[in-house]
Structure formats: structure tokens, C-alpha cells
Amino acid sequence: MHEQTLAIHAGYDKDAMGTMAVPIYQTTAYEFRDSEHAANLFALKELGNIYTRLMNPTSDVFEKRFAALEGGVAAIATASGMAAIFYAIANVAEAGDNIIVAKQVYGGTTTLTGHTIKRFGIETRYFNVANPSEIEALIDEKTKIILFESITNPSIDVADLSAIVSIAQKHDIMTCVDNTVATPILCKPFESGVDVVVHSTSKYTTGQGLALGGIVVERHGLVDLIKDNDRYSHFNEPDESYHGLVYSDLPLPLFTLRVRLALMRDLGATPAPFNSWLNIQGLETLPLRMKQHSTSAMAIAEFLEAHPKVSKVNYPGLKSDANHANASKYMKGGFSGLLSFEVANKETAQKIADGTDIFAVVVNIGDSKSIITHPASTTHQQLSAQELIDAGVPGGLVRLSVGLEDTQDLIDDLTKALDNA
């Protein structure tokens, strides 16, 4: 089936009542047929619902539908995008290990990998996403995963997926891509050999800023990388916390299964069924919305590129953009609704943000309403001056999340703000 059909139908077999809309299964627990049934579920002899911290029928539909859109084999929803990123790392790395992360990532990912992860005894090594050749010198026998974004937020760089994957495959290391900005509608990382994809579904997926959420998706055949791979010995050895279960021996998608049975079980960053339901509603219109977000963002990028107060526009749809070649290679149907531009200094950038009427000063992205953000003083405020430079976030950078309003109204709003700054 094509994307628009998958977005509406995948993962849902109508329940006994024949409901067209996916029901909200607002329950914490489930009744077992008997004690033997309960024991079989806990022993994985049968598959089914045990407790909503682990699984829920509404979340199950969302997971299956999202996996279908990404072209993955399985997915697990989380309470937030940051939970999804943390689980992807914690599922493979432990004290004494290291991970490799792009310098140009969302500010929350920078603080997680640069500060919080240190307290777990995990070292982070950084590379410039524009120069994948830096990765190889960072790899050793303790390297467990390479993490980067398909479209970076807010520098709007586009990763060379194949180049990074090629290095990772040479060393039998897992790759993980945050595909939040591109969405599975515009970019399919699995087609380039990426192993795991994560999203903040709080953004374009829900589409109206209604629900927090995240998701982890694994590719078909990931077991072939993990099985008998010394880097991932905990997948190949008995898990004493689960009756000696060996994940790589199971005929099931093992990466997301371990997130569910170990990390979700013990850490519990579980999505509420209602939030999964809201994300399902968002998926139904995601293909249509991404086309409009991209069309409007392209028009605004062209307008900004011609404005005398703007020194640089970061949008991969522009032929003048350094990322245009990668974007043309890895994206189809548009270049998303996120763009950024640079003006003279921090003070001018903040005046522009404060001078808009339609664009709201908000730190979210992917909303139906247009958003303007000054990253250096908000989402990336915790970064040092050098970290800001490394992340592509100078003081004069303004980020726009272009919504679904009339495009000319948005251009008029920006014209007024720029003229008055």
C-alpha cells in the first residue's frame, strides 16, 4: 500500500464492535483467562497484553502504523522523544562504553549525550555531520552506536546517510537516526541501511502540539548485525532478569523487544493511551500536511534569501544551500517545514522574533501553527559558546517552524518583523 493508505489503515483490524475509529483503551491492566494464561504471557509462550506500562492496544496500533510508514519491522512508543533517544542508547551501551554523536543535533540531545549520559559511565564522542570521515578515528571496541539526525535542528543540515552507514557497517556498529524533522513521509533512513530510527512524535506526527510522545523503530533483519556480535553481547547472553531469555534467539524483532521487556519494564517512560490515540489521528493527515509544510517553507526560504537583512538562509530546498545535494538524494516530496536564517546579531534576532504576530514565540516545531524561536537563548541556552558554534547555532540565528496558515500571510508577517528590527 502507498503512504496515504498506510497512514489511515495500517495496524488496525477492527475490534468486535466494528469501530471505524481506533478505540482508546484507557486501562492500566488486563484480565487473563486463567493463571496458566497469565504465566504463559509472562514467559513469552504466548503474546498478549499484560500491563499498560509494557503494552496497550491503542499504542499497539500506533506502533504498527508508524513502523509501516517507516518501512521498519517493529516499533515501540515512548512517553517523549527524549525517552526514545535515551532508550535507543541505553539498549546498547553501558558503563565503560562510548557512543558517537553528531555535533549538530537538537539541544536536548546534546545535553543528554554530553552531560546526563556521563553519569551512567558512558562517554560521548562528537563528529561534524558535514564531515562523516571524522567518525572512523573515534571508533574503538567499546563503541556501541552512531547517533545523528536526518535533518538537524536547528542548523538544518542534511546528513549523508549512506556515507555514515558505510563506516558503521565496516565496524559492525549500529546506526540510529532521529528522523523527526523529515518524518517518514519525506525520508526513509532504512532504505539507506540505517538500523534504528527515533522520533519525537510530539512534533509533526501529532501535528497540532496536542501530545507528548516518542517512538523507536527497528529495521528488518537487524538481528543479523546483533547476533554473535561482541559489541552487543547482552543480546546474545541469557538475561537473568527474564528467566535466562536470549534475545538474539527469538524469532521476533529483538531491538524493540528488549526496550519493551527491560527498559520500559524498569524505567517506565510509557505513553498514555490517549496520547497514542492523538498520534494516530495525526498520522492520518501526515502525508498531506508535510506537502503543505514543505511548499510554504520553500516560498518563505526564497523570500528570506532575497531580504537585505538576512545574511544566510538554511533550507535544503534552496539550490544555493550546501545541503541541497544530500537533500535531493535522500528526501522526496519536499524538504519539511523547518528552516533557519541568520541576521546581524542576537539583539536583531530577538527583535524579529518579538515582532511577529502570526508566528508565535514557542520552542516546539511541527505544529499546524507557525512558530518562531531564538535557539541560542532557549533550546540551546545550556550550551557553551563553543558548543553553540559546533551545533551551528550562532546568536543571530532565528528558527522557523512553518505551519499551515496562508503562505502570503506568513511572508507579510515576517516582512513587518524584519523591517522593524
Count every beta strand, where a strand is a DSSP E run of 2 or more residues.
Answer: 12
User: CATH superfamily of the largest domain, please?
Assistant: Type I PLP-dependent aspartate aminotransferase-like (Major domain)
CATH architecture of the largest domain: 3-Layer(aba) Sandwich
Enumerate the spans where pLDDT stays under 50 for 5 or more consecutive residues. none
What's the main sheet like? 7 strands, mixed
| Number of self-contained structural domains | 2
Count the DSSP helices.
Answer: 15
- Structural class comes to alpha/beta
Provide the gyration radius in Å.
22 Å
Q: Widest sheet: strand order?
A: 1-7-6-5-4-2-3
What does this structure look like?
This protein starts with a helix and ends with a helix. The protein folds into two domains: 3-274, Aspartate Aminotransferase, domain 2 (3-Layer(aba) Sandwich), CATH 3.40.640; 287-420, Alpha-Beta Complex (Aspartate Aminotransferase, domain 1), CATH 3.90.1150.10. Helix 3 runs parallel beside helix 11 and helix 13 crosses helix 15 (407-420). The strands form two sheets. Strands 1-7-6-5-4-2-3 form a seven-stranded mixed β-sheet, with helices on both faces. Strands 8-9-12-11-10 form a five-stranded mixed β-sheet. The chain has helices at residues 3-9, 35-42, 57-70, 81-90, 107-114, 161-170, 183-186, 223-226, 233-236, 254-267, 273-305, 324-330, 346-354, 385-390, 407-420; strands spanning 74-78, 98-102, 123-127, 143-149, 174-178, 196-200, 214-218, 312-314, 338-342, 360-361, 371-373, 397-401. It has 421 residues and is α/β, with parallel strands linked by helices.
